[in-house]
Structure formats: C-alpha cells, structure tokens
Amino acid sequence: MKIVLGPASVELGEKIAELVSSDTVRVAHKAFPDGESYVRLKSPVQNEHVVIVQTTSAPQDSRLMQLAFLAGASKRNGACKVTAVVPYLSYARQDKIFLEGEGVSIETVACMLKAAGVDDLLTVNIHAENVLKKFPFPAKTLSAIPLLADYFVGKGYGKAFALAPDKGAMHIAEQAQSVLGGGAGHLFKKRDRYTGQTTQIAEGLDVNGKTVIVFDDIISTGGTIMGAAKILRNLGATRIFTACVHPVLIGDAEKRILNSGVKEIVGTDSVPHHVSKVSLAPLIAKALKAQESG
Ligand code: R5P
Q: What distance in angstroms lies between residue 39's CA and the mean position of ligand 1's atoms?
C-alpha cells in the first residue's frame, strides 16, 4: 500500500502513512493561470494499492478535481487499486431532492470519482450514511465522535451532557454519551429550504447546572451552534462547549460562536484549522489496516 499525499491533506496523510507503515507518494500541484488544476505523482505506483488522502473542504471544486486527477494518474501509472480517503466529503448534504429541479449532488460526485478511477472510498461522519449505498463503489463512513468525546474526558469534563443540535444527529450525541456518561439529548431544528433560515427549539431538556457539549458533524456558518448556545444559556447550562468532526467554520463563525457563550470549539483535522485538536489518523489507519487484512 502507498499513501498519496493529496495537496489538501498532506499532514494527515503523513500521519496515516506512519501508522500503517507505508511509503508516501508526494504530489506536485499547481493551478494554471486560468484556474485549472494540475497534479503529478512524484514517485512510482506500479502494481500498488494506492490510498489517496484528500479532504474536499473549501475550495471544494478544485480539491475534488485534484482527487479525481490523482485517481486517474494512479491508474494510468499502473496502480492495481485506488482507495480514496476523503475525510470531509463535500456536497454530502445535497443527498436527496429537496426542491423540484434539483439533482442529488453527492451521487454525481461519486459517479465522477468512479469514472476517474476510484475503486472504493473511506470518509468520516458523512452527513447521512444511507447515501453511501447508492455509490457506484464500496464506500464506508467512520465516526470520529468517540475521539472528540475522549478529548473532553482528557480535559476533565468526563460527565458532561452530550447534546445534538437536531433530532437527526441524536446518534452522534449517543456515541458521545457512551464515552462521557453524562446523559444525552437533542434539540429540534427546522430549515426553510428557500432562505436557508433555521429555527431551533428545546422540548423537555434538563441541562440546568450542567456542563453541555454540543456535538455536530459540521460547523459551517456557526448558526446552528449559536442557536443551541442561546437555548442552553436560557435553560441554565453552566458551561457550553462544542465539538465537530468537520470544522468548516466559514468567515467569522469561530469568533461569533465564542461570543455566543461557547467556551471552546474542538474539531478534527478533517478540515485543517487551529481548532483541529483531534487527529483522524488513528481512526483511518485502523480502518485501512482492517481493509488490508480482510
Ligand atoms: C446540518 O444538518 C448539519 O448537521 C449541521 O448542523 C449544519 O451543517 C451546520 O451548519 P451551520 O454551522 O451553518 O449552522
């Protein structure tokens, strides 16, 4: 197995390679003056199982093209198998048709990767797991929530209450609760599909006097977490933290979240950011080793 260090995830790829004791393949890359992407594998991959580590957070489209080009280059250069490790798989939130006239973007992305040469895919906390069944190759999602919960145990918040910002994310809060042991619950969230505006409410949630950690797959604008923090403050929570797998954190989201009464934001290196305090490398390395031996 050889680990191709996708330009978006060089550090994570190096950590994974060390844990699985594999050689790395460095990538030369640039953008042409008109914006088109260029990649080149800097060492041979003939007859190798190639694992490309490349996240697809912003700029999503060029990172997706780099991933597709790396898969194509690997096959052209004789790789026998190409596994894409894509910690943050962009477009996964458009996993169904919400309004007439739309497409299912994530299915199109998967078909594009298949055509490029990807044979299977590993991702982390994809927004909705069931979409993977429709991919044209085997695809698996891992969960980094126990690793994030462990971080808080290490900080002395082992009995914190795990909160999901909406009902659909309750499985995330339950995974965190199984590490933390301080109880779990969820808010209710509704989204207007035309304006994107969300409203959140709490029903029967007892967090008075508790330390609460809001767990989510993605924090993007921070609106969801700020809404949750407001509710938690009104319900008497003593301390509020937030943890997410993919700290997309666009614009001044981080500042606004911290100003809303959240003490700390913790993310993973799925999206490299200074809040990425938890590495996905051990989780991904374990899955790759299991794949090799299975
Ligand atoms: C949506 O359901 C996701 O799980 C996240 O809650 C959402 O993407 C977070 O977005 P934002 O930070 O923009 O509220």
A: 32
Neighbours of 225 (CB within 10 A): 24
Q: Let me know: does 261 contact 228? Beta carbons within 8 Å.
A: no
pLDDT in tens, 117-157: 999 999 999 988 999 999 999 999 999 999 999 999 999 99
- pLDDT digit string (tens) for 159-201? 999 999 999 999 999 999 999 999 999 999 888 878 878 889 9
Residue 163's SS3 state is strand
Give the dihedral of Cα atoms 101, 106, 111, 115; nearest 10 deg.
120
Is 114 a catalytic site residue? no
The two tokens of residue 58 are 């912003």
The structure tokens listed for 85 are 């490790």
Catalytic residue among 189, 263, 286, 289: 189
Q: What is the pTM of this model?
A: 0.94
Is the beta carbon of 95 within 6 A of some atom in ligand 1?
no
Bridge pairing between strands 81-86 and 120-124: parallel
Widest CA span of the chain, in angstroms? Answer: 60
DSSP β-bridge partners for residue 185: 163
> How big is the CA angle at 173 (ends 183 and 8), to the nearest 5 degrees?
145
**Contact at 8 Å (CB) between 29 and 66?**
yes
Which of 96, 90, 46, 48 minimizes the C-alpha distance to 68? 90
- Closest to 284 in 3D by CA, of 131, 127, 87, 74: 87
- CA 121/CA 101 separation, integer angstroms: 28
87 Cβ partners below 8 Å, 6+ apart?
9, 12, 53, 55, 123, 124, 246, 268, 269, 270, 271, 280, 284
Q: Amino acid identity of 120? A: D
